[in-house]
Automatic annotation (TrEMBL):
The protein's name: Crp/Fnr family transcriptional regulator
Family matches, as SMART domains: cNMP (SM00100)
Boundaries of every Cyclic nucleotide-binding domain copy: 10-130
């Protein structure tokens, strides 16, 4: 978890004891390329810290995959809907390369939040960050063209074309692969 301290410091400053207490809740999860750390239909109880690697979040509808998010390590992810509603998740999280991943029981994380204002601040700021990114994506689907969603994605993640298969990128921006080919061709001129 070498990136954990650097990642969390973006959101809050923790004492050494708080950092140790938080890190101690996480256990490693073995994740190879194309493995899933979360599968639709399962009940989620854990929060994940992705130390290294790239993941995609997707759901299935009528046998078709719809990519809703890419997760670049280091990052923390929790499927709060499933955790809070105690209902099976409809999401899948798949590793796009060999990854370094950890998980912690969400209830134990919440118990730690009760004892540490700094850790509570960390998660408040983290959830705020996640909410803003999600809202930005929703607004983009309402206001932006498919081409603009593509160019914005490339601007935000310049190496994405080297790291993520085109069919996942197409799904993420809400187009079919053939439409993405036309957008790419037009943007390369």
């Amino acid at each position: 978890m070498e990136n954990f301290k650097a990642f969390t410091s973006q959101f809050a400053t923790l004492t050494d004891k708080e950092m140790t207490d938080l890190k101690d809740l996480f256990e490693p999860v073995r994740v190879k390329k194309m493995d899933h750390v979360l599968v639709s239909g399962t009940y989620v109880k854990d929060l994940f810290f992705f130390n290294k690697g790239t993941f995609r979040v997707y759901h299935l509808k009528d046998g078709e995959e719809f990519t809703s998010k890419f997760l670049y390590a280091p990052c923390i992810y929790a499927e709060l809907f499933s955790i809070r509603k105690v209902t099976p998740t409809f999401l899948n999280i798949q590793a796009l390369n060999d990854c370094d991943c950890y998980k912690a029981n969400f209830v134990k994380i919440e118990q730690l939040l009760e004892t540490s204002p700094n850790i509570r601040r960390l998660f408040l700021k983290l959830y705020e960050h996640i909410y803003m990114k999600s809202s930005k994506r929703q607004v983009s689907f309402i206001l932006d063209s498919q081409s603009k969603r593509y160019t914005d994605l490339i601007a935000e993640f310049p190496n994405i074309l080297n790291e993520i298969p085109l069919q996942y990128i197409a799904s993420f921006i809400g187009v079919k692969p053939e439409t993405l080919s036309r957008i790419r061709k037009k943007n390369n001129q």
